[in-house]
Amino acid sequence: MKEKAKSDGVETVWDRFEEQQPQCGFGQLGLCCRNCNMGPCRIDPFGEGPSKGVCGATAGTIVSRNLIRMTAAGAAAHSDHGRETALVFKEIVEGEVPGYEIKDEAKLNSIASRLGVNTDREIEEVAKDVAEIALEDFGKQDDEVISFANAYAPESLQQVWQELDVAPRNIDREVVEIMHRTHMGVDADPLNLNLQGIRAALGDGWGGSLIGTEFSDVMFGTPEPVESSANLGVLEENKVNVITHGHVPILSEKIVEAAEDEEMIELAKSKGADGIVVAGMCCTGNEIIMRHGIPTAGNFLQQELAITTGAVDAMVVDYQCIMPSLTDVADCYHTKVITTSEKAKLPGAEHIEFDPAKADKIAKQIIKTAIENYPARKEEKIGIPEEKMDGVVGFSVESIVDALGGSLDPLLEAIKEGQIKGIAGIVGCNNPKVEHDEGHVEVAKKLIANDILVVGTGCWSIAAMKDGLFKPEAAELAGDGLQAVCEQLEIPPCLHMGSCVDNTRILVAVSAIAEALGVEPSQLPVAGAAPEWMSEKAVSIGTYFVASGIFTVLGTTPPVLGSNEVVKLLTEDIEEVTGGKFAVESTPNEIADLMLDHIASKRKELLGERG
Ligand code: BF8
Ligand code: SF4
Asked: Where are its TM segments located (predicted)?
């Protein structure tokens, strides 16, 4: 597809990455500051030029401020998505969004029970209270930990947060406080700054993202195993192809429904098409593949390539991870890029604003726009690659427990007996700094070969699926122990747990395992990796995992090397307090090795000789 792009005269992310070389060294090290207009300032990493900004800020201050601003942006993105979900949920109860409903009452009741809400009532009453508690977590003004974190995080973890004074008090407030503290002349202490970064990240993982996942399950169903397929080959030449790209299922769910509407299918046929294909991309794709088996066209680095097939009649986007280049690529073909959120408009795109109150009508309007664009295809430019891969997805915590026969015990037993040596979470993006999908796939393969059960989310999931790792037969690539477990349970060795907000499913699973064993999450043979991360959301995710006791390996270097103090804090000192820490390795092999070593040492500590 990259070659097709070249011959069609399309510029891609890889071309622009080349053009950016060499990238700014100060930026890479995190050493430039433009937080006020006495600057911009930069610190000389070689100690020959300036060692302080105009205001006197040191490398440690500048690196920390820059890093936690990334965390703030990531936490804000996730949590704003969570808020939107909670607001639609509240409107269901108020009868304002006829297109949405409470689909999974059992899930709502389980959330309510955790929150201490009386479930012995009409479901609407329960829903009202749960919605209220969630929205309060975004706006309350006291200093108590947010209700969702309090209800979901293990007691021992919460104690650590209290001791460090990093328990999130309000999801939005922690983000705002980062912006305040990093304003010129406020917080200059690297440790203090990074603690606030942790607090905001915890507000994301145990707050905003968690609310996003839980309420999406209630409204659209908790995922269960379902077969589907992934890669650009899911597009079909003779059908209207609609790609839904971005993050919120509130939109993509409705697009899926509208495309199944008889009236729309007839309209498509009247234009000469055989039907309508909806395919996902990035995390909103993960949402609909997890719940309905809707195929996924690709992950982050494939968004431009999808349009390059010449067969995408509309690319419908909401927000996050949408490259502004899409409209330039679309100009070379007939594709309509349709923006739907007032928060995310692209110059050159058609804007059809989505409103949950009129969801069905607007979704149909979007599908209709795609259908009407079908006859505009340029035949000579169509080229859909054949590649697509099948697999089983849909592993929520609930469905994993079901697959295990109703409790975690068989998994715990397999871990104790050593059939499964440990669990790894692989998450995150693509990044043109590394070969597309290579880190994701190779790390996963090495881990399963060593009897590590792999779970993951986001663009990792799509990479793993394209490589066949979600097929039950992929168990053949696993070590003998893991292979036997997979065959017995009829599951693949790598489990798709959802979109990036659904990393909270991993937090919940790890907490449940720790509680069942009566230990802290940090004592478990568990490790995480983000081999190809690029987004600020990934910074927040990595931070909340580390602050929840999980050893996390990054495959691309965050902009912190300008300060030894910050590097030491994140890769060494933090372990003493939270039990988790960061590491950075560039090759998949080394990333997997670090994870394997960590898991082996935790097994030994936990199980003694049996480890
Ligand atoms: O939230 S993994 S490139 S799509 S940021 Fe984006 Fe990264 Fe993909 Fe989803 Ni997550
Ligand atoms: Fe320079 Fe300090 Fe202003 Fe940053 S805050 S731009 S280091 S003077």
From this structure: none
